Amino acid sequence: QVQVVESGGGLVQPGGSLRLSCVASGFMFSAYAMSWYRQTPGKEREKVALIYSGGAVEYLESVKGRFAISRDNAKNTVYLQMNSLKSEDTAVYYCYANVQNGYWGQGTQVTVSG
Question: Is 24 within 8 Å of 97 (Cβ atoms)?
Fold first, then answer.
């Protein structure tokens, strides 16, 4: 079955960096788009970044120039490099596999504070 597992969240000071990883299994990873979303309490989940199977990418306007999504098909892994982090980036970050009806990971907390 499809599994999606995120890692790499944590506490970081404003201006700092984090790299999130998402390992997926149970489907032909290289053939599907993968996305990162985030959610804060009381708000809807929003799409942060998307990478298509061919490598094209899309970003939420507020993270353009600071975040970078990439994928390693040999490792069935998608990454989100987050630089110049701001307090408003604090959220639970979710990985999403755009396969069949879609599959979510369990989420990883990113807290920008200090």
Answer: yes
CB 16 within 8 A of CB 85: yes
Q: How far apart are CA 9 and CA 75, in angstroms?
A: 19
The two structure tokens encoding residue 23? 């390992």
Residue reference for tokens 């990454």: 79
Check whether 114 has a pLDDT greater than 90. Answer: no
CA gap 43, 31 in Å, rounded: 31
Task: Give per-residue pLDDT as tens, 1-18.
Answer: 999 999 999 999 999 999
**Locate tokens 């989420």: which residue?**
107
